[in-house]
């Protein structure tokens, strides 16, 4: 997937909850999923955990277990996930059973990864996607969750026709509406790319057109390597542009899974990168630092992942990323 182009739980009566579903620009959802849970969910079926389970005798296994597999991170859902409502329901149900907050990524927009092609695919039509995302949200239901919505979908508009952009923005606006209606205890972050991709003003314009006013916020640096400080400066600039042009600002989160050594300008399996600050709630700037991209999962057939496919777990890449070499 392409990442750089240019160098208090609150309980509310059901009637009030229904009124609050009509989210206005700049407002947040009625419920705070972080206040309904006790920490973040570490996926026991992550790619890194599955590798460890099958390679206990490998000398790299202990480090990968403690430094990657044990860290709460997102699970990505797409056209590989089977019946999507069943899949998201099972995932958030397992998290809820332990009182933990799950992070999910919705990654199935038609024309997915249209610019780079390493993660190409997605739903076959607007109608298919709208049905898929409605089922995704219904699977979560009233349980608490965080959702990162369609990484790259806003940034990749440079490779799309006006008609394709219009369709994509309509799908994203509808997706946000589906979560508001069907998953009221979910915070949705519409992806906005990273500091090396779009200007803050362009990112704000595209986010607004895609309906970020109805979302809880936006996400930055998904599957990329830019340091947290740079993302904070950029996120604040995007918010300033939103406020200036549209009259509201939004919370934002930063993917820190692979930004411990910063970026070298490359987006596809660059060498020498390092894991970053684990998933946590912050006191300012980004609302949360999240591990969205799983360290060790390939970006595609490129760089240190030559010969691999996007999403494939590469233990040597994961091991080196722990230590930053």
Describe what this molecule looks like in 3D.
With 325 residues, this protein is α/β, with parallel strands linked by helices. It has a single domain, classed as 1, 4-beta cellobiohydrolase (TIM Barrel), CATH 3.20.20. 34% of the residues lie in helices and 10% in strands. The protein is built from 9 helices and 8 strands. The chain has helices spanning 14-20, 47-54, 61-69, 84-97, 126-140, 162-182, 200-209, 228-246, 315-323, and strands spanning 75-77, 103-106, 145-149, 186-191, 217-220, 251-255, 280-281, 288-290. An 8-stranded mixed β-sheet has the order 1-2-3-4-5-6-8-7. Helix 3 crosses helix 9 (315-323), helix 4 (84-97) packs parallel to helix 5 (126-140) and helix 5 packs parallel to helix 6. The longest helix has 21 residues, at 162-182. It holds the Pfam family Glyco_hydro_6. This is Glucanase. It comes from Kitasatospora gansuensis. It is an enzyme of class 3 (hydrolase). Keywords: Carbohydrate metabolism, Cellulose degradation, Glycosidase, Hydrolase, Polysaccharide degradation, Signal.
């Amino acid at each position: 997937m392409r990442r750089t182009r240019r160098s208090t739980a609150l309980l509310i009566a059901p009637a009030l909850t229904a009124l609050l579903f009509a989210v206005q620009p700049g407002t947040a959802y009625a419920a705070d999923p972080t206040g309904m849970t006790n920490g973040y969910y570490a996926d026991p079926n992550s790619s890194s955990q599955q590798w460890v389970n099958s390679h206990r005798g490998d000398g790299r296994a202990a480090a990968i277990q403690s430094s990657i597999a044990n860290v709460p991170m997102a699970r990505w859902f797409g056209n590989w996930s089977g019946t999507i409502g069943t899949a998201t329901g099972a995932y958030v149900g397992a998290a809820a059973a332990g009182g933990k907050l799950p992070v999910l990524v919705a990654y199935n927009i038609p024309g997915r990864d249209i610019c780079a092609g390493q993660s190409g695919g997605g739903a076959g039509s607007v109608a298919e996607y709208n049905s898929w995302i409605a089922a995704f949200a219904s699977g979560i239901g009233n349980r608490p969750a965080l959702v990162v919505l369609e990484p790259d979908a806003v940034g990749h508009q440079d490779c799309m026709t006006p008609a394709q952009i219009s369709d994509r923005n309509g799908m994203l606006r509808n997706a946000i509406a589906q979560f508001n209606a069907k998953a009221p205890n979910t915070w949705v972050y519409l992806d906005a790319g990273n500091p090396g991709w779009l200007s803050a003003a362009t990112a704000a314009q595209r986010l607004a057109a895609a309906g970020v006013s109805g979302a809880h916020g936006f996400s930055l640096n998904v599957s990329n390597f830019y340091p947290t400080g740079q993302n904070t400066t950029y996120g604040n600039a995007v918010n300033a542009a939103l406020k200036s042009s549209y009259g509201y600002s939004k919370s934002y989160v930063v993917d820190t899974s692979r930004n411990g050594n910063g970026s070298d300008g490359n987006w596809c399996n660059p060498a020498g990168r390092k894991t970053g600050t684990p998933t946590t709630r912050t006191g300012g700037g980004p609302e949360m630092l999240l591990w969205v991209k799983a360290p060790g999962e390939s970006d595609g057939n490129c760089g240190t992942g030559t010969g691999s496919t996007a999403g494939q777990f590469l233990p040597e890449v994961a091991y080196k990323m722990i230590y930053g070499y």
